[in-house]
Amino acid sequence: PAIRPAPTATKSLYYSSALRFKSNSSKPPASEKHQYDMKAPELDAGFANVFQVDPNQINVTEILTTGFRLNNGQAIYGPLFIVNNTPFVLKIPPPMPSSNGIVHPLQKLDPQALLVLNVVKPKPELLVVGGGANISQLSGEAKKYLTSIGLQVELANTKNASSTFNTLAQEGRNVALLAIPSG
What we know:
The protein is an alpha+beta fold. Helices cover about 10% and strands about 20% of the residues.
């Protein structure tokens, strides 16, 4: 079916939760004006379709065991870094065994891998970090770097991080994603 634009309100329509009043004035008295009055100045800007999604906005549509599938059909293998609607393959070391068990790649993350954040304009307000199947901490150096450039960080598993990123990006927020494949 064809997409039709939403109908617009005209100046002749008056929707209000206020009681009807007997006056020749086009505005209700201040005592009868309620917050849902459609003529209120806060609403004079018009209507916005909150369900309209920018088709050019990059989103994660599928989490693969070794990568990600994006809504543009592109498959990214390995860690994913999306900044300002641009996906990057992040080059970081794979999980490594140690005497304490397995060292997670995010715990060895070198801040040099994130230097693109120094040059992008506008700088994201939030970096959502997906640590694979579980939540993982960033390396101390990476945390220090992100704090020094004023970036907030939210840690989650990759599934939740991708979902959070998709939602915030669709809302128009300037958010970045750094995610490790779940496998």
